[in-house]
Amino acid sequence: MLDPEWRPPAADPGMIAIAEVAIAAYVRYLAPADDADWLTARINALLHHGWLERTDPATFRVIIGDWINELRAFPQWAIANAAASLLRTPGRIGLAQMAQACRDEVGDARLELAALRRLVDPEEQRAAWQRLEERRNGRR
Q: Rounded distance, CA 1 to CA 3, Å?
């Protein structure tokens, strides 16, 4: 999470343009998994790795639905990386652990995206230029 006290530096139009390109790239990089069949198959496979005891089909569908609801906001690459990592750990792995592993996968990119969005925010830039001007005037 981006520190709420962090204030971006004053940025010239060229820097803002570069930041906007980076924002678009991060948005694509962090886009939620859009292949429902892949996500369902990935979750089904995870559950069949011994994490789930035998259950009736209706209950299994509810369990799959819970996993889908929790994980679908993450990019496919993050889900795949988290699954690969958790499959190497001993014991049963639950939904909360999988969701945390996905959050860990995307954490740095989400932080960088939040910082870039703050950098290009017009109000933040107005304040940044004002801080810069105040520092310049204070040195004279």
A: 6
pLDDT tens figures, 23-79? 999 999 999 999 999 999 999 888 887 666 778 889 889 999 999 999 999 999 999
- Answer yes or no: are the C-beta atoms of 23 and 60 closer than 8 Å: no
CA–CA dist 57, 39 (Å, integer):
18
Tokens in use for 131?
A: 């801080």
Residue 109: what are its φ and ψ, rounded to 5°? -65, -40
Tell me what pLDDT residue 135 has: 92
Residue-by-residue DSSP string for 67-122: HHHHHTTS-HHHHHHHHHHHHTSSS---HHHHHHHHHHHHHHHHHHHHHHHHHH-H
